């Protein structure tokens, strides 16, 4: 199969794109039907890896496998369509397509990224898949992670309003919903804000009352979403009803760790009394 047939951006149109409340796009029916069906039918190749995860029997938890594991285990994955899918979506060709799609907003928000791309895209150490050995040695690293959310024993959200890791440049999701899945929820919620946002914990929004739902992107078959990761790129997953079905999805990311990079910092609440207590305790 030609690799461009595996490209989840092949059906992108400019009308799919929005720059508010932050740059993102959605592509429905991202892949040709026969390609999507082949990927869906072969998704079981990951089952034994998912089943060994500590969260596999927990309620509505994320379990996934990374590109490094797949690409380094050819004997397990080489014969699967997923091997080529993972390889292509970690490629410079795919990265360049995202760069071009987000070009206008990249220039405004992260102008240094375009400069690095134009000057170093042909270098040996420009892009590779994410790993402990690669992260600090390449200009950018990527990952394409087939995964699931485990069945929902009680109605819950896998994650509330948050932003992704500040080292992430692009984040994407590709949905592979099972035809027999009759559950509701599990949709991606995109937020706009009415006030300055305060973060806590990992990168969760503390003052959620300052958020308003802008768009709900349905968890459905062959649906693709990408966004430019900024301090405003707040999103969540809606509550999912009780179901024995797992939620099938693939997570795609491009990151930059080199030079201890962060594309933005998180505004966290400054607790004066807690700081004072810590100082007095020294």
What does this structure look like?
The chain is α+β, with helices and mostly antiparallel strands and 282 residues long. The protein has a single domain, classed as Jelly Rolls. Helix content is 24%, strand content 23%. The protein has helices spanning 33-41, 47-51, 67-71, 74-77, 81-88, 92-101, 103-109, 111-120, 272-280, and strands at residues 17-18, 24-27, 62-64, 127-129, 140-149, 168-175, 188-193, 199-200, 204-205, 211-217, 223-228, 235-237, 247-255. The strands form three sheets. Strands 1, 2, 3, 4, 5, 6, 11 and 13 form an eight-stranded mixed β-sheet that branches. It has a three-stranded antiparallel β-sheet with strand order 10-7-12, with no helix packed on it. A two-stranded antiparallel ribbon has the order 8-9. Helix 7 (103-109) packs across helix 8 (111-120). It starts with 16 loop residues before the first strand and ends with a helix.
Secondary structure layout:
Blueprint: E1 17-18, E2 24-27, H1 33-41, H2 47-51, E3 62-64, H3 67-71, H4 74-77, H5 81-88, H6 92-101, H7 103-109, H8 111-120, E4 127-129, E5 140-149, E6 168-175, E7 188-193, E8 199-200, E9 204-205, E10 211-217, E11 223-228, E12 235-237, E13 247-255, H9 272-280
Parallel strand pairs: 4-5
Antiparallel strand pairs: 1-2, 2-11, 3-5, 5-13, 6-11, 6-13, 7-10, 7-12, 8-9
Helix pairs in contact: 7-8
């Amino acid at each position: 199969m030609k690799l461009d047939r595996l490209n989840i951006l092949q059906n992108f149109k400019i009308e799919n794109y929005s720059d508010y409340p932050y740059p993102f796009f959605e592509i429905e029916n991202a892949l040709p039907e026969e390609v999507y069906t082949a990927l869906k039918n072969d998704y079981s190749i990951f089952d034994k890896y998912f089943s060994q995860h500590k969260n596999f029997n927990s309620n509505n938890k994320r379990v996934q496998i990374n590109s490094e594991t797949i690409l380094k285990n050819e004997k397990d994955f080489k014969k699967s369509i997923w091997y080529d899918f993972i390889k292509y979506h970690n490629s410079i060709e795919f990265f360049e397509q995202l760069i071009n799609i987000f070009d206008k907003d990249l220039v405004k928000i992260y102008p240094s990224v375009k400069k690095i791309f134009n000057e170093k895209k042909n270098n040996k150490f420009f892009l590779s898949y994410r790993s402990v050995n690669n992260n600090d040695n390449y200009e950018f690293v990527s990952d394409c992670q087939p995964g699931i959310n485990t069945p929902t024993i009680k109605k819950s959200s896998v994650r509330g309003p948050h932003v992704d890791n500040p080292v992430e440049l692009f984040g994407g999701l590709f949905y592979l919903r099972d035809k027999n899945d009759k559950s509701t929820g599990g949709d991606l919620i995109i937020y706009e804000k009415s006030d300055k946002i305060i973060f806590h914990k990992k990168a969760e929004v503390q003052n959620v009352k300052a958020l308003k739902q802008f768009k709900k992107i349905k968890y459905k078959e062959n649906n693709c979403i990408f966004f430019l990761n900024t301090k405003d790129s707040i999103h969540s997953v809606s509550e999912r009803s009780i179901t024995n079905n797992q939620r099938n999805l693939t997570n795609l990311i491009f990151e930059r760790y080199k030079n201890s990079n962060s594309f933005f910092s998180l505004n966290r609440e400054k607790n004066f009394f807690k700081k004072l207590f810590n100082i007095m305790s020294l």
